[in-house]
Amino acid sequence: MKRAKAVSVLLIAALAVSSLAACGSKSSSSKKEADKFYIGGIGPTTGGAAIYGTAVKNAARIAVDEINEDGGINGHEIEYKFEDDQSDAEKSVNAYNTLKDWGMQILLGTVTSTPCVAIADKTAQDNMFQVTPSASTTDILANGNVFQICFTDPNQGTASAQYIAENKLATKVGIIYNSSDVYSSGISDKFIEEAKAEKLDVVATEAFTEDSKTDFSTQLKKIQDSGADMVFLPIYYTEASIVLKQADTMGFAPKFFGCDGLDGILSVDNFNTSLAEGVMLLTPFAADADDEATQNFVKKYKDEFGEIPNQFAADAYDGIYAIKAAIEKAEATPDMSVSDLGDTLKESMPEVTIQGLTGGDEGLNWESTGEVNKQPKAVIIKDGAYTAM
Fold first, then answer.
1. Fewer CB near the terminus (10 Å): N or C of the chain?
2. pTM
C-alpha cells in the first residue's frame, strides 16, 4: 500500500513537471511566432517546370538569409518555407494548406500561372498578402491582394512585338502557342494585336494543347510554307526545345524569339544547346550584366547552388525585398493577423520603389492593381549562354 502511494506521488510530480514543460514550450512557440515574419513559397521543384520553381526557392532563400543577417525587417527575422506543387493547381492548393498550418502570413508564389490562379482565390478568401515572382496572367489580379514581380502576359506580348519591330528583327512572323495555357495564349493575343500597330506581318498562327505538345512538325511546316523569317514562341522551355530540334531536322532555320518562359532552355536534359544559338527572349534580367548588384547575386547563387541563376531566380530575390519594403513602409509587425497584414501591405506596396535586379535604371514600382512597372530587356543565346542584347 505504501509502495502504491509512493508511486502515485511520483506520478503526480511527473505530471506536474510535464505540465510545466508543456506550458514553457507553448510560451516559447508563441514568442517565436510573435517575433518572426512567416513567409511561404510555392512552385515546382519536380516535374517539367522544375527549373523555374527551384530557382525561385533558392534565390528567395538567399534574400531571406541576407535580410536576417542584416538584422531582419525592423528587427524581426523571417522564417521561410517552400512547398513543391509540380506546376499543378490541385497540388498547389494542397501546398497552400500545408503552409497555412505551418503559420504562413505572407505568400511568395506561386511560380507558374495556372496554379497561381487557383491560389489567388485562396489568398483572397484569407485576405493574405501575396507576391508572385513569375505568374504573369492578369487573372490573378482581380482581388487586389496579389502583386506581380514579372511582367503581365499582355505586357510581354506588347513589348515583344515592339522590340522586334523597333530593332527590325523580322518582317514576317509565325507564332506557335499553347491554346490551353493562360500564359501562352495571353501573350500571343497581345502580340498579334500589337504586331498590327507595328506593321509586323503575322503570317501564321499555330496552336497546340497540353495533350499535343511533343510533335510540332505540322505547325512548323505551315509556318515554313508561309514564308516567315521569325517564329515567336510564347511557350515554356521544354516545348521550345522540341520545336528547335524539329525545326533543325526539317532544315528550317528562322530566327526564334520568346519570352520569360524560354529561360531555362539551356538546362533541358539531353538537349543540344547549339540548337538554341541565336534564340532571343525578352527578360528583365541578364546574368552577365556588369552592375555590382547583379554580379554579387550571381556569385552567391553560383557559390551556393553551382549554376548561373535565371530570370526566375532574380524575380524571386526581388520579390522578397519587395515584401520587406512594403512591411517597412507600413511599419507592420509579425503579431498582426494575416488579414490585418493583408490590408496594410496592400496599401503600402504601391507606395514603394525598389532598385532590385530586374528593375533597370528606374527600379520596380507597382500599380494599386498589383501590376509591376519596370524596364524590359532582351537577351540572345550566344556561345551557350544568355547575353544582353
1. N
2. 0.78
